[in-house]
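Hello again,

I reread your note about wanting to compare the complex against the isolated chains. To keep things tidy I'm splitting this into two emails, and this first one only covers the full assembly. Below are the input lines as submitted, including protein chains and any nucleic acid or small-molecule components. They are followed by the predicted structure of everything together. The single-chain runs will come separately.
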Amino acid sequence: MELRLDRMAQEATRLQAASDDPLCAYLYDLPALRRHIDDVVATLPERCEMFYAVKANAETPILDALEGRVAGFEVASDGELALIHERFPGVSLLFGGPGKTVSELSLALELGVELIHVESLTELKRLARLLERGGHRQQVLLRMNLATDNLPSTPLTMGGVPTPFGIDPEELETCLAFLTDHPSIVLRGFHFHLISHQLDADAQLRLLDDLFRQVEHWREQHDLDIDQINVGGGIGINYREPHRQFDWTGFCSGLAMQLDEPRLRRYRIRFECGRYLTAPCGYYLMEVLDLKRNHGQWFAVCRGGTHHFRTPAAQNHNHPFVRLPGRGGESMLTNTRVSIVGQLCTPKDVLARQVEIEHLAIGDLVMFTLAGAYAWNISHQHFLRHPAPIMHFIDDEESA
Ligand SMILES: Cc1ncc(COP(=O)(O)O)c(C=O)c1O
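Full-complex prediction:
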């Protein structure tokens, strides 16, 4: 995963020089995104496929960069479904997420999604009723909320504990009986998205081993004719120690060994990652407006804030950044600790708390890295009605 800091800094300085107002912008590095995706996909073992979880970032140039590189898109609402279908007709779509409405399921059938990841018996019943009317068949995976021995603890857990996600294994028999009575719904396998923010490749391999074992057990126990396992997304980005990222290469070689086992050769394994694919290509820029000391602590008040970039507040971390010398303002801090905050009227508008800096001046730019996933699109953008950031997509290399 490549961060072209010099190139991004050059572009940031150019944007600042062109703006009379203090700058606030997202920069996206599309060539780096394409290379990252190509590396990730090329490293996957045989019979594995990478889908993109659109919820991580649905900016059109990002989607365009991904299309043709990933095997397809995982969508989790009618909005995402319609967006991707309209932009890439014919692309493979996986429709997941809790609380699917009748109209969403109906749209999914109309647009011909490849698979629906069913979250409950209620959804199965809704789908069966729609299929009775339409007279065709639909392939599904059952999303299971499984407690496994090797379920790691991460800051975002969707499974193995009480959550609204997936089907409790205790309900599996009822769901399978329903499927036997409704042959228009074709079970192709199981889906799991149990955690996000996984940073440990060995722990992820242990988890997958549990999942594979469980699916094999269910297949034998219920005599199922299945051939797919979707292991979700959840590969993390290390915001706290950016130089220690998930070992994707090591993970893929471990997975290749697991999948070499004869009993697993029948399965196609699908991933639907979001954060790991797009976080590295995004940068959020804020210009320093004010430097002030209050009750013994320094604060850099910057253009923008968590209403543009909620990631650090949502994940409760100090987001990594680099300082770019800017307009040459009057006040300068050296070798001290400072909190980087935004313009909102709330003490929660903090992007990095009491972090060590060498220099920082009014007019400088603070450039947050790893800001390309769950960033602009998860932020409360209208709070206080400050202007939106500039969205700037850098595409300075021919795409292959
Ligand atoms: C069902 C499902 N799949 C995939 C993802 C993508 O997760 P991540 O961005 O952690 O890879 C999510 C995220 O919430 C999800 O809920």
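For quick reference: The mean pLDDT is 95.

B.
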